[in-house]
Design brief:
alpha/beta; five-stranded parallel β-sheet; 19 helices; 14 strands
Amino acid sequence: MLSRKIERSLAAWKADPERLPVIVKGCRQCGKTYSVRKFAEENYGNCVYLNFYENAEYCDIFAGSLEVDHLIMMMSAMLGPVARFEPGNTVIILDEIQECPEARTALKFFKMDGRFDVIGTGSLLGVKGYSDKPPKSIPVGYESTIDMYPLDFEEFLWAMGIAPDLIHLLHECLQKASPVSPALHKKLRQLFLEYLVIGGMPAAVQSFAEHHEPGRVLPIQRDIVRLYEQDMIKYASAADKSRIIECFESIPRQLARENKKFQYSVIKKGGRSGEYSGSLQWIEDAGIIYRCHNLERMELPLKGNSVPDEFKVYMADPGLFLSMLDDGTQFDVLNGSLYTYKGAIVENYVAGVLAKMGRELYYYRKTSGMEIDFVIRLRGKCTPLECKASTGNTKTTRTVLNHPEIYLIDMALKLGDYNVGYEGQVLTLPLYMGFLLTEL
Protein backbone atom coordinates (compact mmCIF):
# COMPACT_ATOMS: atom_id res chain seq x y z
CA MET A 1 0.00 0.00 0.00
CA LEU A 2 1.56 3.26 -1.13
CA SER A 3 1.28 6.40 0.99
CA ARG A 4 0.57 9.56 -0.98
CA LYS A 5 0.77 13.23 -0.14
CA ILE A 6 -2.66 13.83 -1.63
CA GLU A 7 -4.10 12.23 1.49
CA ARG A 8 -3.07 15.39 3.37
CA SER A 9 -4.76 17.58 0.77
CA LEU A 10 -7.97 15.58 1.00
CA ALA A 11 -7.88 15.73 4.80
CA ALA A 12 -7.54 19.54 4.65
CA TRP A 13 -10.44 19.64 2.20
CA LYS A 14 -12.68 17.60 4.50
CA ALA A 15 -11.75 19.77 7.49
CA ASP A 16 -13.06 22.89 5.72
CA PRO A 17 -16.69 23.46 6.76
CA GLU A 18 -17.27 25.44 3.54
CA ARG A 19 -15.85 22.73 1.28
CA LEU A 20 -17.07 22.45 -2.27
CA PRO A 21 -17.29 19.23 -4.27
CA VAL A 22 -13.71 18.51 -5.27
CA ILE A 23 -12.20 17.11 -8.45
CA VAL A 24 -8.85 15.35 -8.23
CA LYS A 25 -7.09 15.95 -11.56
CA GLY A 26 -4.08 14.17 -12.93
CA CYS A 27 -2.67 12.07 -15.75
CA ARG A 28 -3.90 8.54 -16.30
CA GLN A 29 -2.53 5.87 -13.94
CA CYS A 30 -1.09 8.29 -11.35
CA GLY A 31 -3.14 6.76 -8.53
CA LYS A 32 -6.20 8.99 -8.24
CA THR A 33 -8.79 6.24 -7.85
CA TYR A 34 -6.81 4.28 -5.26
CA SER A 35 -6.06 7.35 -3.13
CA VAL A 36 -9.61 8.69 -3.24
CA ARG A 37 -11.19 5.34 -2.36
CA LYS A 38 -8.70 4.78 0.46
CA PHE A 39 -9.49 8.23 1.85
CA ALA A 40 -13.22 7.55 1.60
CA GLU A 41 -12.95 4.24 3.44
CA GLU A 42 -10.97 5.84 6.27
CA ASN A 43 -13.07 8.98 6.69
CA TYR A 44 -16.72 8.13 5.91
CA GLY A 45 -19.22 5.57 7.05
CA ASN A 46 -20.59 5.17 3.52
CA CYS A 47 -19.02 5.44 0.08
CA VAL A 48 -21.07 5.44 -3.13
CA TYR A 49 -18.74 4.77 -6.05
CA LEU A 50 -19.46 5.33 -9.75
CA ASN A 51 -16.80 4.74 -12.41
CA PHE A 52 -18.01 6.20 -15.71
CA TYR A 53 -15.05 4.81 -17.68
CA GLU A 54 -15.70 1.20 -16.67
CA ASN A 55 -19.49 1.41 -16.73
CA ALA A 56 -20.96 3.87 -19.24
CA GLU A 57 -24.48 3.00 -18.01
CA TYR A 58 -23.86 5.09 -14.92
CA CYS A 59 -24.16 8.15 -17.17
CA ASP A 60 -27.88 7.36 -17.45
CA ILE A 61 -28.28 8.36 -13.79
CA PHE A 62 -27.54 11.95 -14.78
CA ALA A 63 -29.46 11.96 -18.07
CA GLY A 64 -32.61 13.47 -16.60
CA SER A 65 -33.23 15.70 -13.60
CA LEU A 66 -30.14 16.75 -11.62
CA GLU A 67 -32.13 17.38 -8.45
CA VAL A 68 -30.28 15.54 -5.67
CA ASP A 69 -33.21 13.45 -4.41
CA HIS A 70 -33.79 12.21 -7.95
CA LEU A 71 -30.09 11.34 -8.36
CA ILE A 72 -30.09 9.43 -5.06
CA MET A 73 -33.12 7.46 -6.17
CA MET A 74 -31.46 6.60 -9.49
CA MET A 75 -28.17 5.58 -7.84
CA SER A 76 -30.03 3.40 -5.35
CA ALA A 77 -31.97 1.73 -8.14
CA MET A 78 -28.84 1.02 -10.18
CA LEU A 79 -26.42 0.07 -7.38
CA GLY A 80 -28.82 -1.65 -5.01
CA PRO A 81 -28.33 -1.91 -1.23
CA VAL A 82 -24.58 -1.20 -1.50
CA ALA A 83 -25.50 2.46 -2.01
CA ARG A 84 -26.32 3.94 1.39
CA PHE A 85 -26.99 7.66 1.78
CA GLU A 86 -26.51 9.02 5.30
CA PRO A 87 -26.35 12.83 5.45
CA GLY A 88 -23.03 14.03 6.82
CA ASN A 89 -21.45 10.57 6.69
CA THR A 90 -21.56 9.67 2.99
CA VAL A 91 -19.17 10.53 0.18
CA ILE A 92 -20.08 10.05 -3.47
CA ILE A 93 -17.11 9.30 -5.75
CA LEU A 94 -17.58 10.14 -9.42
CA ASP A 95 -14.59 8.45 -11.02
CA GLU A 96 -13.43 9.54 -14.51
CA ILE A 97 -16.01 12.30 -14.43
CA GLN A 98 -14.96 13.57 -17.85
CA GLU A 99 -16.87 10.61 -19.31
CA CYS A 100 -20.14 12.06 -17.99
CA PRO A 101 -20.31 15.86 -18.41
CA GLU A 102 -23.77 15.95 -16.81
CA ALA A 103 -22.30 14.51 -13.60
CA ARG A 104 -19.90 17.43 -13.44
CA THR A 105 -22.79 19.83 -13.93
CA ALA A 106 -24.56 18.09 -11.03
CA LEU A 107 -21.79 19.17 -8.62
CA LYS A 108 -23.59 22.51 -8.28
CA PHE A 109 -26.73 20.80 -7.07
CA PHE A 110 -24.85 18.61 -4.60
CA LYS A 111 -23.21 21.71 -3.11
CA MET A 112 -26.50 23.58 -2.86
CA ASP A 113 -28.13 20.52 -1.23
CA GLY A 114 -25.26 20.09 1.24
CA ARG A 115 -26.07 16.64 2.63
CA PHE A 116 -23.31 14.65 0.94
CA ASP A 117 -19.66 15.19 0.10
CA VAL A 118 -18.65 14.58 -3.52
CA ILE A 119 -15.23 13.76 -4.92
CA GLY A 120 -14.70 13.50 -8.66
CA THR A 121 -11.60 12.29 -10.46
CA GLY A 122 -10.59 13.28 -13.95
CA SER A 123 -7.71 12.13 -16.14
CA LEU A 124 -8.59 13.97 -19.30
CA LEU A 125 -10.68 16.94 -18.21
CA GLY A 126 -8.41 19.35 -20.01
CA VAL A 127 -8.65 17.58 -23.34
CA LYS A 128 -12.36 16.92 -23.71
CA GLY A 129 -12.73 20.15 -25.66
CA TYR A 130 -10.58 18.59 -28.40
CA SER A 131 -12.90 15.64 -28.88
CA ASP A 132 -15.70 15.45 -31.40
CA LYS A 133 -18.21 15.84 -28.56
CA PRO A 134 -18.16 19.34 -27.05
CA PRO A 135 -18.02 19.64 -23.24
CA LYS A 136 -21.10 20.56 -21.21
CA SER A 137 -21.29 23.51 -18.82
CA ILE A 138 -18.89 23.60 -15.89
CA PRO A 139 -20.29 24.54 -12.45
CA VAL A 140 -18.08 27.58 -11.89
CA GLY A 141 -17.96 28.49 -8.22
CA TYR A 142 -19.34 25.12 -7.11
CA GLU A 143 -16.27 22.90 -7.42
CA SER A 144 -12.67 22.94 -6.24
CA THR A 145 -9.70 21.03 -7.66
CA ILE A 146 -6.68 19.18 -6.34
CA ASP A 147 -3.88 18.36 -8.76
CA MET A 148 -2.31 14.93 -8.41
CA TYR A 149 0.96 13.76 -9.93
CA PRO A 150 3.02 10.58 -10.13
CA LEU A 151 4.94 9.85 -6.92
CA ASP A 152 7.70 12.32 -6.15
CA PHE A 153 11.03 11.16 -4.75
CA GLU A 154 9.96 11.50 -1.12
CA GLU A 155 6.90 9.32 -1.75
CA PHE A 156 9.23 6.87 -3.52
CA LEU A 157 11.41 6.78 -0.39
CA TRP A 158 8.35 5.97 1.71
CA ALA A 159 7.55 3.10 -0.65
CA MET A 160 11.12 1.80 -0.37
CA GLY A 161 10.82 1.68 3.42
CA ILE A 162 13.12 4.59 4.25
CA ALA A 163 12.42 5.54 7.86
CA PRO A 164 10.90 8.99 8.58
CA ASP A 165 13.79 9.89 10.88
CA LEU A 166 16.25 9.51 8.00
CA ILE A 167 14.18 11.84 5.84
CA HIS A 168 14.06 14.23 8.82
CA LEU A 169 17.87 14.25 8.80
CA LEU A 170 17.76 15.61 5.25
CA HIS A 171 15.53 18.46 6.44
CA GLU A 172 18.05 19.27 9.16
CA CYS A 173 20.99 19.18 6.72
CA LEU A 174 19.20 21.61 4.44
CA GLN A 175 18.31 23.98 7.27
CA LYS A 176 21.90 24.00 8.57
CA ALA A 177 23.50 23.80 5.10
CA SER A 178 25.55 20.89 6.45
CA PRO A 179 26.60 17.77 4.50
CA VAL A 180 24.61 14.54 4.61
CA SER A 181 26.55 11.73 6.32
CA PRO A 182 28.57 9.62 3.83
CA ALA A 183 26.62 6.40 4.45
CA LEU A 184 23.20 8.02 4.01
CA HIS A 185 24.46 10.06 1.05
CA LYS A 186 25.62 6.90 -0.72
CA LYS A 187 22.33 5.11 -0.05
CA LEU A 188 20.20 8.00 -1.32
CA ARG A 189 22.31 8.46 -4.44
CA GLN A 190 21.53 4.86 -5.39
CA LEU A 191 17.84 5.24 -4.55
CA PHE A 192 17.77 8.36 -6.71
CA LEU A 193 19.09 6.41 -9.71
CA GLU A 194 16.42 3.79 -9.04
CA TYR A 195 13.77 6.52 -8.99
CA LEU A 196 14.93 7.80 -12.38
CA VAL A 197 14.38 4.30 -13.78
CA ILE A 198 11.20 3.34 -11.92
CA GLY A 199 9.56 6.78 -11.88
CA GLY A 200 6.42 7.55 -9.95
CA MET A 201 3.61 5.60 -11.57
CA PRO A 202 2.05 3.61 -8.70
CA ALA A 203 1.91 0.30 -10.57
CA ALA A 204 5.62 0.56 -11.40
CA VAL A 205 6.61 1.61 -7.88
CA GLN A 206 4.50 -1.12 -6.25
CA SER A 207 6.08 -3.77 -8.47
CA PHE A 208 9.58 -2.56 -7.66
CA ALA A 209 8.84 -2.32 -3.94
CA GLU A 210 7.69 -5.95 -3.93
CA HIS A 211 10.28 -7.54 -6.22
CA HIS A 212 13.18 -5.06 -6.65
CA GLU A 213 13.47 -6.17 -10.27
CA PRO A 214 13.61 -3.32 -12.81
CA GLY A 215 12.95 -5.86 -15.56
CA ARG A 216 9.41 -6.34 -14.25
CA VAL A 217 8.80 -2.59 -14.35
CA LEU A 218 9.61 -1.78 -17.97
CA PRO A 219 6.60 -3.69 -19.43
CA ILE A 220 4.32 -1.89 -16.95
CA GLN A 221 5.68 1.48 -18.05
CA ARG A 222 5.37 0.69 -21.75
CA ASP A 223 1.79 -0.48 -21.21
CA ILE A 224 1.03 2.93 -19.69
CA VAL A 225 2.65 4.67 -22.67
CA ARG A 226 0.47 2.58 -24.99
CA LEU A 227 -2.57 3.52 -22.90
CA TYR A 228 -1.70 7.19 -23.43
CA GLU A 229 -1.49 6.61 -27.17
CA GLN A 230 -4.85 4.83 -27.11
CA ASP A 231 -6.33 7.86 -25.32
CA MET A 232 -4.94 10.08 -28.06
CA ILE A 233 -6.78 7.97 -30.62
CA LYS A 234 -9.98 7.71 -28.58
CA TYR A 235 -10.41 11.27 -27.36
CA ALA A 236 -8.74 13.50 -29.93
CA SER A 237 -10.63 14.79 -32.93
CA ALA A 238 -10.21 12.75 -36.08
CA ALA A 239 -8.03 15.38 -37.73
CA ASP A 240 -5.59 15.52 -34.78
CA LYS A 241 -5.05 11.86 -33.89
CA SER A 242 -1.93 11.15 -35.95
CA ARG A 243 -0.35 14.55 -35.26
CA ILE A 244 -0.73 14.13 -31.49
CA ILE A 245 1.01 10.75 -31.57
CA GLU A 246 3.78 12.12 -33.81
CA CYS A 247 4.25 14.99 -31.37
CA PHE A 248 4.35 12.66 -28.36
CA GLU A 249 6.83 10.26 -29.95
CA SER A 250 9.20 13.14 -30.79
CA ILE A 251 9.78 14.09 -27.13
CA PRO A 252 12.85 11.85 -26.59
CA ARG A 253 14.41 13.29 -29.76
CA GLN A 254 13.66 16.82 -28.62
CA LEU A 255 15.40 16.27 -25.28
CA ALA A 256 18.43 14.53 -26.84
CA ARG A 257 19.45 17.77 -28.56
CA GLU A 258 21.99 20.10 -26.94
CA ASN A 259 19.60 23.00 -27.41
CA LYS A 260 16.46 21.43 -26.00
CA LYS A 261 14.12 24.13 -27.25
CA PHE A 262 11.10 22.37 -28.69
CA GLN A 263 11.15 22.49 -32.49
CA TYR A 264 8.23 21.38 -34.64
CA SER A 265 10.64 20.43 -37.43
CA VAL A 266 11.97 17.64 -35.19
CA ILE A 267 8.51 16.03 -35.26
CA LYS A 268 8.57 15.91 -39.02
CA LYS A 269 10.78 17.60 -41.56
CA GLY A 270 9.12 20.88 -42.46
CA GLY A 271 6.75 20.67 -39.47
CA ARG A 272 5.35 24.01 -38.32
CA SER A 273 3.66 25.48 -35.29
CA GLY A 274 0.37 25.90 -37.12
CA GLU A 275 0.32 22.17 -37.84
CA TYR A 276 1.34 20.81 -34.43
CA SER A 277 0.76 23.43 -31.71
CA GLY A 278 -2.75 22.15 -30.98
CA SER A 279 -1.46 18.58 -30.78
CA LEU A 280 1.20 19.56 -28.26
CA GLN A 281 -1.40 21.43 -26.22
CA TRP A 282 -3.55 18.29 -26.15
CA ILE A 283 -0.69 16.28 -24.61
CA GLU A 284 -0.02 19.01 -22.07
CA ASP A 285 -3.69 19.26 -21.11
CA ALA A 286 -3.71 15.49 -20.53
CA GLY A 287 -1.03 15.98 -17.86
CA ILE A 288 1.56 13.90 -19.74
CA ILE A 289 4.12 16.68 -20.25
CA TYR A 290 5.27 19.96 -18.72
CA ARG A 291 6.16 23.03 -20.73
CA CYS A 292 9.09 25.26 -19.68
CA HIS A 293 9.25 28.75 -21.22
CA ASN A 294 12.33 30.80 -22.02
CA LEU A 295 12.72 34.20 -20.39
CA GLU A 296 13.42 37.36 -22.33
CA ARG A 297 14.89 38.90 -19.17
CA MET A 298 15.94 37.13 -15.98
CA GLU A 299 13.87 39.16 -13.58
CA LEU A 300 10.51 39.12 -11.83
CA PRO A 301 7.71 38.67 -12.69
CA LEU A 302 8.79 35.50 -14.48
CA LYS A 303 5.50 35.01 -16.30
CA GLY A 304 5.59 38.57 -17.58
CA ASN A 305 9.09 38.05 -19.00
CA SER A 306 8.44 34.67 -20.63
CA VAL A 307 8.62 34.15 -24.40
CA PRO A 308 5.41 32.37 -25.54
CA ASP A 309 6.87 30.58 -28.56
CA GLU A 310 10.20 29.50 -27.02
CA PHE A 311 9.92 26.53 -24.69
CA LYS A 312 11.18 23.09 -23.74
CA VAL A 313 8.98 20.06 -23.09
CA TYR A 314 9.52 17.48 -20.36
CA MET A 315 7.76 14.22 -19.51
CA ALA A 316 5.72 14.28 -16.29
CA ASP A 317 7.16 10.95 -15.17
CA PRO A 318 10.90 10.15 -15.37
CA GLY A 319 10.32 6.40 -15.58
CA LEU A 320 7.96 6.72 -18.56
CA PHE A 321 10.52 8.95 -20.28
CA LEU A 322 13.24 6.31 -19.89
CA SER A 323 10.84 3.60 -21.06
CA MET A 324 10.52 5.45 -24.38
CA LEU A 325 14.28 5.08 -24.95
CA ASP A 326 16.25 2.03 -26.06
CA ASP A 327 16.26 -1.27 -24.18
CA GLY A 328 19.22 -1.24 -21.83
CA THR A 329 18.85 2.41 -20.88
CA GLN A 330 17.55 1.44 -17.44
CA PHE A 331 20.67 -0.68 -16.84
CA ASP A 332 22.92 2.17 -17.90
CA VAL A 333 21.22 4.64 -15.55
CA LEU A 334 21.35 2.27 -12.57
CA ASN A 335 25.08 1.99 -13.14
CA GLY A 336 25.51 5.74 -13.39
CA SER A 337 26.23 5.72 -17.12
CA LEU A 338 23.83 8.23 -18.64
CA TYR A 339 25.78 8.93 -21.83
CA THR A 340 24.21 11.37 -24.29
CA TYR A 341 20.94 11.60 -22.43
CA LYS A 342 22.41 12.38 -19.01
CA GLY A 343 21.54 16.09 -19.18
CA ALA A 344 18.05 15.39 -20.51
CA ILE A 345 17.30 12.78 -17.83
CA VAL A 346 18.36 15.04 -14.97
CA GLU A 347 16.63 18.12 -16.40
CA ASN A 348 13.46 16.09 -16.86
CA TYR A 349 13.62 15.01 -13.20
CA VAL A 350 14.13 18.58 -11.92
CA ALA A 351 11.29 19.86 -14.11
CA GLY A 352 9.05 17.30 -12.41
CA VAL A 353 10.25 18.37 -8.97
CA LEU A 354 9.28 21.97 -9.64
CA ALA A 355 5.99 21.15 -11.38
CA LYS A 356 4.85 18.95 -8.48
CA MET A 357 5.31 21.99 -6.24
CA GLY A 358 2.82 23.87 -8.38
CA ARG A 359 5.48 26.04 -10.00
CA GLU A 360 5.35 27.18 -13.60
CA LEU A 361 8.62 26.34 -15.37
CA TYR A 362 11.08 28.82 -16.85
CA TYR A 363 14.63 28.76 -18.20
CA TYR A 364 17.02 31.35 -19.63
CA ARG A 365 18.87 31.00 -22.93
CA LYS A 366 20.37 33.61 -25.23
CA THR A 367 21.93 33.29 -28.67
CA SER A 368 25.17 34.52 -27.10
CA GLY A 369 25.44 31.12 -25.41
CA MET A 370 24.23 32.14 -21.96
CA GLU A 371 21.98 29.41 -20.59
CA ILE A 372 20.49 28.53 -17.21
CA ASP A 373 18.48 25.32 -16.83
CA PHE A 374 15.70 26.76 -14.65
CA VAL A 375 14.83 30.10 -13.10
CA ILE A 376 12.57 30.21 -10.05
CA ARG A 377 11.15 32.70 -7.60
CA LEU A 378 12.81 32.04 -4.23
CA ARG A 379 12.22 34.15 -1.13
CA GLY A 380 10.76 36.86 -3.32
CA LYS A 381 13.78 36.98 -5.63
CA CYS A 382 14.63 35.73 -9.10
CA THR A 383 17.00 32.77 -8.61
CA PRO A 384 18.93 30.64 -11.13
CA LEU A 385 18.73 26.87 -10.65
CA GLU A 386 21.26 24.70 -12.44
CA CYS A 387 21.11 20.90 -12.56
CA LYS A 388 23.97 18.58 -13.45
CA ALA A 389 24.07 14.83 -13.96
CA SER A 390 27.36 14.81 -12.09
CA THR A 391 29.48 17.77 -11.10
CA GLY A 392 29.89 20.45 -13.69
CA ASN A 393 30.68 24.02 -14.26
CA THR A 394 28.02 26.71 -14.41
CA LYS A 395 29.62 29.48 -16.43
CA THR A 396 26.43 31.47 -17.00
CA THR A 397 25.50 31.39 -13.32
CA ARG A 398 28.94 32.70 -12.35
CA THR A 399 28.60 35.48 -14.91
CA VAL A 400 25.18 36.45 -13.53
CA LEU A 401 26.39 36.45 -9.91
CA ASN A 402 29.48 38.49 -10.82
CA HIS A 403 27.30 41.26 -12.27
CA PRO A 404 24.57 42.03 -9.71
CA GLU A 405 24.32 45.55 -11.10
CA ILE A 406 22.91 44.06 -14.31
CA TYR A 407 20.98 41.00 -13.16
CA LEU A 408 20.00 41.94 -9.58
CA ILE A 409 20.69 38.34 -8.47
CA ASP A 410 22.69 37.53 -5.34
CA MET A 411 22.40 33.72 -4.99
CA ALA A 412 21.85 30.58 -7.04
CA LEU A 413 21.04 26.90 -6.54
CA LYS A 414 22.84 23.95 -8.07
CA LEU A 415 21.48 20.39 -7.99
CA GLY A 416 23.87 17.63 -8.97
CA ASP A 417 26.16 14.90 -7.71
CA TYR A 418 27.11 17.01 -4.70
CA ASN A 419 26.59 17.06 -1.00
CA VAL A 420 25.00 20.01 0.79
CA GLY A 421 27.19 23.08 0.96
CA TYR A 422 28.06 26.46 -0.48
CA GLU A 423 30.33 27.41 -3.36
CA GLY A 424 30.48 31.14 -2.82
CA GLN A 425 26.96 32.41 -3.49
CA VAL A 426 25.79 29.05 -4.86
CA LEU A 427 23.99 26.59 -2.60
CA THR A 428 24.77 23.07 -3.82
CA LEU A 429 22.36 20.24 -3.13
CA PRO A 430 22.34 16.57 -4.09
CA LEU A 431 19.77 15.77 -6.73
CA TYR A 432 17.88 13.54 -4.30
CA MET A 433 17.09 16.58 -2.11
CA GLY A 434 15.14 18.37 -4.85
CA PHE A 435 11.84 17.62 -3.10
CA LEU A 436 12.93 19.84 -0.21
CA LEU A 437 13.14 23.03 -2.29
CA THR A 438 9.82 24.14 -0.83
CA GLU A 439 11.63 24.69 2.47
CA LEU A 440 14.04 27.31 1.11
